[in-house]
Amino acid sequence: MLGPVEFADPTGTMRIGGPRLRTLLGLLGLRAPAVVSREALIDGIWDANPPTAAALTLRTYVAHLRRRLTASSLDGLITTRASGYALNVPPEWVDVRRFEERVRLAGTALAAEAIPQAVAHLKAGLRLWRGDVLADCTTGAWARAEATRLRELWHFATEDLLTAQLKLGDYAAVTSELESLVARHPLRERLWELLMLALSQAGRRGEALNAYRRARARLVDELGVEPGPGLRRLEATILADDSRQQQKPAASATRRAQPALPSPLTRLVGRHAELAEVRAQLTQHRLVTLTGVGGCGKTRMAIAVARELAPGFAHGAWFIDLAPVTEHAQVQAVVAAALGISEGPYLGPLEALTENLRSWQCLLVLDNCEHLLDACAALTATLLSSCPALRVLTTSREALGLPGEVTFPVPLLAVPPLGEGGAVPMRLDEVKRYDAVCLLLERSTAQTVRYLTDADAPALAAVCAAVDGLPLALELVATRTEVLTVKEIAARLNEPSLLRVRRYAEHPHHRVLDASIEWSHDLLDMPTQARFRQLAVFAGGFSLAAAEAVWHPQPGERPAVDALSDLVAKSLVVVERQPTGTRYRLLETIRRWAWDRLAECPPERTAARERHAAHVLHEAEQADQGLCGPSMADGLERLAADHDNVRTAMAWYAETPNPLPQLRLAVALARYCQLRGQYRQGQLWIRQALARQHELPAAETVTVGAAWASDAMFSFLVSNYGEAQASAERALEIHRRHDDHAGACRALRLLGSVARERGEYEASLACLQQAAALPCDDFAAAGVLMLSGFTAWLAGDLDQAEQLLDKAYRRYQSSGDSECLASAQIHLAAVAYYRGRNEQARELVDDALTTFSKLEVKEGISWALDLLGLVELRQGKVSSAIGTLRASLDLHLALGDRWRQSSLLDALAQAFVARGEVSRAAELLALAAALRETIGTVVPAIELPAWQATWDAVQERLSEQDLRTARIRGGTATVAGMLAKIS
C-alpha cells in the first residue's frame, strides 16, 4: 500500500482492479488480521455517499476480491465474521506494518546509540515505498487521513535517517539529499536545520548561513512567519562558530541531570500502529495526551514513544511519574526535582522551570495526571507558552482540556471475534494473530501454554473477550495459568476472585484490577459514584435515554448528560458510534466491579434493575410497533443493539412476582426474532412466559392470545405443523371470545399458512377468506392478500395468484413496509418464473434480495437465493445455480425451515441431473422425501412437473441396484451431511 495497492507472492505481483476494490483491500490490510466492521468498510469505500444497497454491494466486492486471491492460489485469506471481514495475514505481510516496525526498531537503535543499525532499519523501511501512498484508492476521508499520516511518518523516518547519517559523518551524501528534499518540501523547518548542520559540519559555514536565509525567505513569502526557534538558534550557533556544535550534530546542552526513561521488565506486545500514530502526532503538535481506562497500557505506550523519540531531541526525553503525588501544590516541585532544576533564592519551582526549559529542546512525559488535572494543566500551559522547543506527552484517564491538546484514546488490544453462542471458528494459529492473545501467552509463565492446540482456541478467545482485551486484566489472568489451564480459566470467568490476584507493580493501583478501577472511582463525587454503579445493570451497552431512565434524575439534580460526559471523560465509560446513534458501555471488568458495589446496597440495586427492565420493555414495544411500516430498519437496529439488555430484562422479569411484563416483552420481541431468524430464542421466551399464564388477571387474556399466536408462528417456521395448528387454534379461540378482530385475523392467517404447507390448498384459502371478512386495518388486509396469492401459485393457479399479489404489492407500497414489499416481490417473481418470464423474475428477485440484505432478514435472503438459483438453472448456468441453491439450503438449515429444505433438495437434484451426476440427484430426492415424511408434507403442486422430470431422469439413467443404493444413502443422510458433499 506504500504505492499502488497490490498483492504480491513469490510468483509475482497481482494488481487489484478498480479503486473501490483496492480500497477494500487497503482497509482490510491496514487492520490485518483484525476484523473490520461492515460500517467501517462502507464508510471507507464510499465516504459520505454510500449506495442504497451498500451492504450487498460490499458483499459483492468481497466475493470478487476472494475470487481474485483464489485464482492466485491464495484462497482462505478473507474470512467473514459476525461484525465484518478480516484479512487473515500476519501484520508483517503488510508493507505499512513492516515500515512502521522498521521505524520503531530504528528508534530503539538510536536510543542505544547503535547508529549503523538504525541507518540499516530506516533504509530498509524507506525502500518499501513504491510511490504515492494509496494513490489508486478512492479519495475519501479515510484514504486522505491515512495517506497524510503515512506521509508524515515517511518524513519523520527520512529526517531520522539523515540525522543518523550525519552522526556517521556522511556529510556529502546527506547534503545532496537534503538539497533535493528542501526543494520539494520547503516549509519543513527540520529539513533546513539538517541541511545547515550538514553544511556546517563539512566546513561550509557560509553556505549553511545562506541556507538559513533561503529558508527564511520561503517561510516569510509563503506563510508570513519567521523561522522557528530551532533554526534561529542554529544560525546563532554557526555565527558564533560554536566548536561543540561543529563537532557533533546532536550534541546535548549542559544539563543539570541526565534524562532517564524507565526500563520495563517485560516486552511491549503489539501497538505498532498506535506507536507510529502517537509519534506522528508529536511531530505535528506540542501537547499529546494518552487517555484511556486504567490498565489499558498508557504508561507503557508513553515510555515506548519517548524512547523512540528521545534521540531527536537535543536535550532528550524526561519521564516524571505523578502517581505518588497527592497534593496539587507539589506538582511543580516534583517536576523540577526530576529534571534536576533547583530553585534559586528568588525563584520558585515554576519560575525555575520556565527559566531553564526556555532554551531546551526536549520531550517531557508526565505520567498519571488524572488525580492532579488542574495542577498538571496549569503547569503544562505555562511551560508550553514559555518554552518554544518543548513538547509534552501526558498520560491520564481524563484529558487536560488545554487549547491545542491532541488526545489519543489508547485502544484495548484486539481480541478474536466471537460468533453466535460464543463460537470461535478459528484455529490456534489464527487466534494467536490477535494482540490480546499474544499478551496473554507472553505473560503466562506456565509451561502448559506452550502446548496449546486448536481445541484451546475458543477458550483463549473467550478469556480475552471477557476482559475486553484490557492489558492489565490479561496480565492478571496470565498469572492464573500456573494453576489452571486456559479452558479452566474460561469456565471460571464469572468468578469475581479470578482477577483479584496480586502482581508486582510500582504503584498499588496497578497491582490489582480492583484497585485500578477504585482509583478512578474515588475521583468521582458521591452522586456520580452512585450513577456509575447503577450503570452496571446494563449488559452490552446503553443510550443516553436508557441511562436517564435508570438514573431517574429528580428536578434540580445534575442532568444525566453531564454525569455521563464526566464518566466518559474519566475513561470509566466507553463511547461507541453506531447507526442507531451514540451508545455507551462499561468494559466488562469495570461493569463487574460496579455490580459488586451496587450489590452492597440491595434496595438501590433492585430499583435500578426495575427501571432498567421497564425501559427495555418500553423500547421493545415501541420498536415492535415500527416493525410493520417505514421505520422497520430503525426498529431492527435498536433491538439488535439492545439484545443483551433484552436478555437481562427477561431474566429479571422471570424472577418477579408479576408475570405480565415478561409476557409483554416476549410478545414484543416475537416479530424481531422472526425477521432476524432467531426462531428458537423467540419461542423459548414465549413459552417461558406462557408457563406463568395462570398467574395473570383475566383482563390480560388478549395478551395471552398474542403469545399463543407467536408460539404458533415459531412452530410453523420450523415446520412443527401440529404444534403450530394447536397454538393458532388456541389463539383464535381467545381472540374471538374477546372480539379482538386483529388477533383473530392473525390466527387465521397462521392456520391458513399451516394448511398451505401441508398441501391442503382449499383449506388454506378458506381460512384466509375468513380472515379477509374480518374488519382489520390495511396492513393486515395486505397480508391476507399476499398469503392468498402464495397459496394460489403453489397450487398452480398463476392467474389468480398474480391478481392477488399485485393488489398486495400496491397496498404495501402505500404502507412503506419495505420487508413486506420485498416479500410480495418474491412471490411475484415466483409467478414470473413459473410463467417462463426469467428476466422479470430475476429483476424482482434482485430488488427483493437487496432489501432483505439491507434489513438482514435471513428468511427473505434464503427465499431470494432459492428463486435466483432456479432462474440460473433454467438459463443453463448449472454450476452457478448449484452454488446459489446450496447457499439457500445452508441458510434454511440454520433457520430450521424443513419445508423449504425439501424443495431445495429437489431443485439441487434437478441441477445435478443437468450436470450428469445422477447418483447424487437420487440421493437428494430420497433425502427430500424422508424430510417430507417427517414433517407431514407433500411436493407442492407447482413443483410436481420438475420433480417428476428429475425422477424420470434418475430412473432412466441408473440401474435398479444403483438407484436402490443411492436412495438408501439419501434416505439415511442428514441435510448437514449432504451439504458437505455438494460442491
UniProtKB/TrEMBL annotation:
> Which residue intervals are the DNA-binding region?
1-89
Say yes or no: keyword Transmembrane helix present.
no
One Gene Ontology term from the biological process aspect of the record: phosphorelay signal transduction system
Q: What is this protein called?
A: SARP family transcriptional regulator
UniProt organism field: Rhizocola hellebori
Task: Answer whether the UniProt record assigns the keyword Transcription to this protein.
Answer: yes
UniProt region (Disordered), positions on chain: 242-262
What positions does the domain OmpR/PhoB-type occupy? 1-89
Q: Which SUPFAM superfamilies does the record match to this protein?
A: C-terminal effector domain of the bipartite response regulators, P-loop containing nucleoside triphosphate hydrolases, TPR-like
Taxonomy, superkingdom? Bacteria
Cross-referenced Gene3D superfamilies: P-loop containing nucleotide triphosphate hydrolases, Tetratricopeptide repeat domain, Winged helix-like DNA-binding domain superfamily/Winged helix DNA-binding domain
Q: Which family does it belong to?
A: Belongs to the AfsR/DnrI/RedD regulatory family.
Q: Which SMART domains match?
A: BTAD (SM01043), TPR (SM00028), Trans_reg_C (SM00862)
Recorded GO molecular functions are: DNA binding
